[in-house]
Design goal:
The complex is a heterodimer of chains A (about 500) and B (about 575). Chain A has about 500 residues and is α/β, with parallel strands linked by helices. Helices cover about 50% and strands about 10% of the residues of chain A. In chain A, the strands form 3 sheets. In chain A, strands 1, 2, 3, 4, 7, 13 and 14 form a 7-stranded mixed β-sheet that branches. A 5-stranded mixed β-sheet of chain A has the order 10-9-11-8-12. Classes of the chains: A alpha/beta (about 500), B mainly alpha (about 575). The interface between A and B is large, with 95 and 80 residues.
């Protein structure tokens, strides 16, 4: 009997100790908040740190204002593509049942594209903030459009809360090892030295990433406009150059990932030399890896003249179960306290509890003293930088969806063939005939992208869509194989 | 077996399965066969075969499945045989330690592997230190490894499934048969080939079928190696595509068909013991104590496999204690801060409670259903039992995300699963329990089928002829005989339910319902130190699951021959 007890104790004592550890270390304040009676239902792709800081700060602010405790119930099915699925599924069934809402109050975070899609479906209600805090908008504290980017629509059903842009992160150790210069423009990522060393985000899975690729193409068009070409000419030539640059970067890429943090992490760990990432991810990793002497092996740059600042919006759903509470959350997010939470240092009065969120507030009036000295990224000054690049919807806006699909056929589905061909081209020092084959984007030129690709995508005929994508994929794979063959032949000929 | 009971059990199980597996799967997969312009269509499936990228992806997945299964078998079979036959130093501890891959949450394992195999990872640091690699040209193991890297990782992760099933089969073999062969002068190799191996085939099939389907549909490991031209990754990419793309569903439909076909063919070849139902062991297996050198060789075999299989775990443990682990064999600065932050996080305590509840309930349901299904498959003679057998294996072949989206669509208000999410709070507890149970059922069914095939039906018939009711026969005769197999299947079901990812990510949307895997996943997204925090919580999960499994073996395994501790 004694032996049996020993056995039981031998199992249960260590088990109890393991279970006790998190109970002892538990953050009681945060746990208490989750027991509050009033509960706001928010669906979000924001990371855990942002959820936690905003949840706790809002609860505190609300209790001070109304004397009632409130908690935020975060719904996090994943990234924006999962959220889209969840919302589509819930609204479809709500429609079937004749109910207006889906049990959610707010949609917080994601890209403008995601909010536009939901707004098109008429799923948001108007936010009171536009009337109650009219000066914020009339005086341009929150601009409606900034360097071509929409920060809130005419219908006032969503509103940008913080700014974000795409940039380049790179590992200085890897650059040194390979004798490469630090990248500062999108063009730099296409240099052959970066072969197998670029980490890329997947534009087919995130609207924000797709937007970054659109910027890259538009920058090329702007270049030709600045050189005096007509809009039509600049668009044609710039579009092809943009696609060719995406091909070069894609050929250097290790992968196209849907994980937002994978890119800066792989760059930080030296698995990739450089990558395309959202600004606050780059800055956070730079900070986390800072040594005592202030140096950091991961650096982040905004590509010169190749990016604009977009926003991460917020919106209230129609039929929200707690409409007043939802309006209050929106009010809080746009107070100075709420806005400073995005970028203040943890040790400052309006700063976060755990660590800096490294995002940039949308309110222009905070980019001055006394606020600026409390900010972690005081030197960024997004509203000044944003003027270096003005996004023009008329140039590439209609190409947004085709571009995403073109990249899939051109780079993602044909990645293996593309990488092989690229290696052969580099080894053969880019023989003209092989290069021409590699960079041939005739079936997806500026006009065809609209007249053929977009038309098919919009037709709703999935079979036709699938066939078109297959044909495009085949075109690029055949070209890459042929380019490889030509390059190998050229290098053999050269050697003889 | 009473045919009426067999039919009722089959009807019950088939209904449960049709409602909770086929229905949600069909809801999602119908997109593969439906287009607005043509209605029902085979065009998407046809296009999959016309597109060389997808056919190559399917072929690669198939090749990965076969090679991973064979490699896992090469690891598991010697382990199980040596463990069954010989006594050697540290046998008890090593027999439990070789199960270590079962305790690692898959994506946490990926983090550990990348720390070791990365360009600036520990392996390159070791090789540079030894002068075998140039510091300016470190090897890109992950970028260059690809196919064989995935095979090795799959085999190292999945061999315990084969090992446990083979060990269970071996423990059911009557030692008298081998002794008889020995007495008649049969040499050891011939004895192994003619007696032991044929008697073990149900276990090899039980484990092999799971390992094949698992590695055929494995997503996480190819993603770590950025090996994208493989069907499961193509499905994943397609499902997450912003435009609604029907391709992934057509691919899933094809993968389902391939999985079923491979299952049925291999079952016809391997599934039944060549010697029919062997008698229940009358004597205890006598373990041989080999000469000292040989005994230590056995220890080395077990330890070697344990060591290699636990490298991802070691990577996770070291990362959880590292301030910054980069380009060195071990971190230069150590810290326990990540544990404090990760374990103190408000998500953690409720997620532990949730995971324990979800996984235990799912395992409980699986054990009941699993035994019932196995009984029908092995003991009844009703028509269609082979179909039932293949049917219950299908959850392994349907990607978690597909099923999760099916559950999500059906649990909305007014839909058929709405009763599973309770009230306005949208509590997905029972939805998750059912989802976990359905996806883990194959482990229990395979183990129970293997056990029943090997246990002697004459014992059950004797009980029945002495007047015992079918229920009493099951309780007093069949179940005790099935003990080791059910423990093996139960442990697998529990462990894999605790480590479930896809259903949890989609269905547990509110933090109060998060299971532990989703809590780990949330921490992974923290900026700067997310990987370290996720590792710290991952280590906690490993320790907890490790103690639970060893505990189950110690406390529950005493009757069986599987794990004599």
């Amino acid at each position: 009997m004694k032996g049996v007890w020993k056995k039981y104790l031998g199992v249960f004592l260590p088990l109890a100790a393991v279970v006790a550890a998190p109970i002892i270390l538990r953050d009681d304040e945060a746990a208490a908040m989750s027991r509050a009676k009033l509960r706001l239902e928010v669906i979000t792709p924001h990371n855990e740190l942002i959820r936690r800081e905003f949840g706790e700060a809002f609860s505190k602010w609300y209790e001070e204002k109304h004397g009632k405790s409130v908690s935020v119930n975060w719904r996090t099915p994943g990234g924006t593509s999962e959220i889209k699925r969840v919302l589509d599924s819930a609204f479809t069934s709500a429609e079937k049942n004749g109910s207006e809402g889906i049990g959610l109050d707010l949609f917080f975070g994601g890209g403008v594209y995601d909010f536009k899609l939901q707004a098109q479906e008429d799923r948001f209600q108007k936010m009171n903030l536009f009337e109650e805090q009219a000066p914020l908008f009339e005086e341009g504290v929150i601009p409606e459009i900034q360097s071509g980017e929409t920060y809130y629509p005419e219908g006032h059903d969503w509103l940008g809360t913080c700014l974000s842009s795409f940039g380049i992160c790179y590992n200085i150790d890897s650059l040194k090892r390979l004798g490469l210069e630090a990248p500062s423009t999108w063009d730099d990522l296409g240099r052959p030295g970066f072969q197998k060393g670029i980490a890329l985000a997947d534009p087919t899975k995130s609207g924000s990433v797709a937007k970054a690729f659109e910027m890259l193409v538009q920058q090329k068009i702007h270049g030709h406009l600045d050189a005096g070409l007509s809009v039509a000419e600049a668009s044609q030539i710039g579009w092809v150059e943009g696609l060719n640059l995406i091909q070069q970067i894609g050929a250097n890429a290790r992968y196209f990932t849907d994980g937002a943090s994978k890119v800066p992490h792989d760059v930080a760990q030296g698995n990739a030399i450089a990558g395309m990432c959202i600004d606050f991810y780059g800055r956070s990793f730079n900070e986390a890896l800072k040594k005592a002497d202030g140096s950091s092996r991961l650096q982040f740059v905004s590509p010169v003249g190749g990016t604009s600042y977009s926003v991460d919006p917020i919106a209230i759903f129609k039929g929200a179960p707690n409409p007043e509470l939802a309006q209050e959350f929106v009010n809080f997010v746009f107070t100075k306290e709420g806005q400073m939470l995005w970028n203040a240092r943890p040790d400052t009065p309006m700063g976060p509890k755990i660590r800096a969120l490294r995002r940039l507030p949308v309110r222009k009036d905070l980019y001055q003293e006394p606020y600026l000295s409390d900010m972690v990224d005081a030197s960024v000054m997004p509203y000044e930088v944003a003027n270096e690049f003005v996004y023009d919807y008329n140039l590439t806006g209609k190409h947004f969806t085709p571009l995403r699909n073109i990249i899939r056929a051109m780079c993602i589905d044909s990645h293996e063939e593309m990488k092989s061909a690229w290696t052969a081209l580099i080894q053969a020092d880019f023989p003209p005939e092989a290069s021409a084959k590699f960079f041939d984007v005739t079936p997806v030129g500026y006009d065809l992208a609209l007249s053929k690709v977009k038309k098919t995508l919009k037709s709703g005929d999935k079979v036709a869509e699938v066939r078109m994508m297959n044909d495009l994929g085949k075109h690029f794979r055949d070209n890459y194989r042929e380019a490889e063959r030509l390059a190998l032949a050229a290098s053999k000929g050269g050697a003889q | 077996m009473n045919t009426r009971i067999a039919y009722s059990l089959t009807a019950f199980v088939a209904l449960f399965f049709a409602f909770f597996f086929l229905y949600p799967a069909v809801v999602v997969l119908k997109e593969a066969f439906y287009s607005e312009s043509e209605g029902f269509t085979m065009a998407f499936v046809g296009e999959v075969f016309k597109n060389p990228v997808y056919t190559e992806g399917l072929w690669n997945a198939f090749a990965l499945g076969v090679t991973s299964t064979l490699t896992a078998l090469c690891l598991a079979l010697p382990l199980a045989l040596v463990g069954h036959r010989y006594l050697f130093p540290f046998k008890k501890s090593l027999s439990a330690l070789v199960l270590i891959p079962l305790v690692l949450p898959p994506f946490v394992g990926a983090v550990g592997v990348k720390q070791i195999l990365g360009i600036q990872g520990a392996l390159n640091a070791v090789l540079i230190k030894l002068g075998m690699v140039d510091v300016a040209m470190p090897v890109d193991w992950l970028g260059e490894g690809r196919f064989w890297g995935v095979v090795l990782m799959n085999a190292l992760h999945l061999y315990p499934i084969l090992y446990m099933n083979i060990a269970a089969s071996l423990s059911n073999i009557d030692p008298a048969m081998e002794q008889a062969a020995q007495n008649l002068g049969c040499p050891p190799w011939r004895r192994f080939l003619k007696i032991t191996l044929p008697l073990t085939t149900p276990g090899i099939f039980a484990g092999g079928a799971i390992v094949f389907i698992w590695s055929f549909t494995e997503l996480g490991v190819p993603l770590v190696f950025d090996y994208t031209r493989v069907a499961p990754v193509q499905v994943f990419d397609g499902i997450k595509d912003l435009g609604s793309n029907p391709f992934p569903y057509a691919l899933v439909a094809i993968m389902l068909m391939v999985s079923t076909a491979v299952f049925l063919v291999s079952k016809a070849v391997l599934g039944r013991s060549k010697l029919g139902t062997a008698p229940r062991p009358k004597g205890k297996n006598i373990e041989v104590r080999p000469k000292r050198g040989k005994a230590w060789l056995c220890t080395l075999l077990f330890f070697g496999i344990f060591f290699i299989a636990s490298l991802p775990h070691a990577g996770v443990v070291v990362l959880s204690l590292a301030h910054d682990w980069y380009a060195t064999i071990l971190p230069e600065v150590w810290t326990t801060e990540h544990y404090q932050e990760a374990l103190g996080h408000p998500l953690v305590v409720p997620s532990i409670q949730n995971s324990l509840f979800y996984a235990s309930m799912a395992t409980f349901i699986d054990l009941i259903l699993g035994v019932a299904i196995a009984w029908v498959i092995v003991r009844s003679t009703i028509r269609g039992r082979a179909f039932l057998d293949a049917l219950v294996m299908l959850p392994l072949a349907v990607p978690g995300l597909v099923l999760a989206f099916g559950y999500l669509a059906l649990s909305q208000k007014g839909e058929h699963f709405y009763f599973l999410v309770q009230g306005a709070a949208q509590d997905p507890t029972w939805l998750l329990v059912v989802a976990y149970a359905v996806r883990r059922l194959p482990y229990v069914v395979r183990s129970a089928v293997a056990g029943l095939q090997q246990s002697n039906i004459a014992l059950e018939e004797a009980a029945r002829s002495l007047g015992a009711t079918p229920a009493r026969t099951l309780r007093r005769v069949s179940l005790p005989l099935l003990g080791p197999n059910l423990i093996a299947g139960g442990i697998l079901a529990f462990a894999f339910a605790m480590l479930e990812v896809s259903d949890s990510l989609i269905l547990a949307q509110q933090s109060e319902h998060f299971p532990i895997t989703k809590a780990i996943y949330s921490l992974l997204g923290m900026l700067g130190n997310g990987y370290e925090l996720a590792s710290a919580l991952g280590v906690w999960a490993m320790v907890f699951l490790g103690i639970s499994i060893i505990g189950a073996v110690i406390l529950g395994g005493k009757k069986g021959g599987l794990f004599r501790m």
